């Protein structure tokens, strides 16, 4: 057992207030354990640990008083983000509102919809031309000048806070842009920065690694290594050649990234989306995903944040099968020590699969296999985001189906959403070798229906969209709306002419927010049907305490076409029924109680329930006093 450095460090923090000292006592041992796993074999470990603790201490000292107060409030209510009234929204700054300042003018719109968690896609200083939609960061402490300044960020964060909206930003911690100061210094021959990245003098080691590595961008950026002519060396680049993977085996990288994170936290950021989290540690002979050290990196961040800024949440972006994914939320003895939130990519992909098939059997079977989530953490449920839908992840979640059956199904689903399958209602485009690009409304059939001016088809598309959101809002966890879904924004057919496109098909669903359409949300057309439908879900959800710290148990009914979700907690029971097919379905009513559907207000009598095409019910027990 390694000797503890804790007692030495405790003296160093004397003089800070009791809140800090108490948190140090609790969380420094977690940080130490995690950091020892990463760097414990270095003889200078004590120095490394001391430097890191000084950074944490400095961040606390510099933390604005208002944020310290928020930290205290949140420590008293650590499940604040799990309350059913929490609803998320994600958007690109420029496409939603032009600049950070512009976002302030959209706060009323967000509030009207019922949103109180806003994820803004990358807006930190980015590589000028090709920058992967901002995911190639040139500086973690500066805002992209085109989008605003650090002052603007602070101002926005504080206005959002005043309006009860928490701010989530991307923390792109796997790689920097090749024009980040660290990368520039490397190219200029500064040896001190060589170790910030993974460099190789020739192809020997890269070729060895490639044998077991996958590929993120199979078509636009094949391979995982890029030749740097200035250095006559190869550098590790999982994503685009201009995104250089950071080397977390170097403790300075961890230290610098921690400082960046705490710097941004002190500007008023509430939640950090840990981009491409699975990739942080490399090990020869593996796929270099989900390595044990990745979890120690996250654990160290979590424990150190818990000391300096405990109101902050970490959200894992890990597009991996659920048996790996749950570990990003902590499991077993590591419960409460990893991220608090993770994208539920299994639910997301399976929702699309069920909608394409008009059948919920596979969906329910896969949901049953998702391992339970640790207490204190929860899912972030969504249907679409700025990326493609990657079907690959499903190949690993067969839920008892044969390899061949499952492969065929995944192939069918992908073809369905590119619109290639005869009779498919969807409009989308194949992306790379394994994904599909397209907006939620276009996937749901609105694009084809509008083109045909077919009112019945438009109605079905609206029903599909609201059906998927019903599951997202009731599964358990926080729901996330992707910009424009609430008004049925379609694919951007001009995407290839947009600034930033660079041959990347994901721009198909990254068009600017159509504010003209958004203004129609008060009318009585499609936009209004969707906007009010989402608003209604927000309302119902926020008065459903049965969702607190609960994940639904899935079942099927109605010849396999109806998904039933069941919740049962200290606040009672909840049943959700959704018919994934375009034809009516009949299902058995839950027994033992009288139930009221929160959508229609109607009481359910008898033991059968009839659902219309893509029909849905939100059933809570009728109060006996009623
Ligand atoms: C993320 O996505 C971002 O969401 C993308 O927009 C970025 O391009 C990328 O990182 C690089 O920064 O491969 O198709 O397991 O799969 O991080 C999306 C996680 C991606 C990865 C995911 C990545």
Question: Mind explaining what this structure looks like?
Answer:
- This protein has 626 residues and is of the alpha/beta class.
- Among the domains are: 80-173 and 250-387 and 476-546, TIM Barrel, CATH 3.20.20.80; 549-621, Golgi alpha-mannosidase II (Immunoglobulin-like), CATH 2.60.40.1180.
- 37% of the residues lie in helices and 17% in strands.
- It has 22 helices and 26 strands.
- The chain has an eight-stranded parallel beta barrel. A six-stranded antiparallel beta sheet has the order 19-20-21-26-23-24.
- Helix 12 (292-308) links the parallel strand 11 (271-274) and strand 12.
- The termini are far apart.
- Mean pLDDT is 95; it is low at 7-12.
- Bound molecules: 3-O-alpha-D-glucopyranosyl-D-fructose.
**Bound ligands, named by name, code or SMILES:** 3-O-alpha-D-glucopyranosyl-D-fructose
Number of helices: 22
How far is it from the N-terminal to the C-terminal residue, by CA?
62 Å
Average of pLDDT? 95
| Tertiary shape | globular
CATH class of the domain at 80-173 and 250-387 and 476-546: Alpha Beta
Q: Strand order within the widest sheet?
A: 1-2-5-11-12-13-14-18
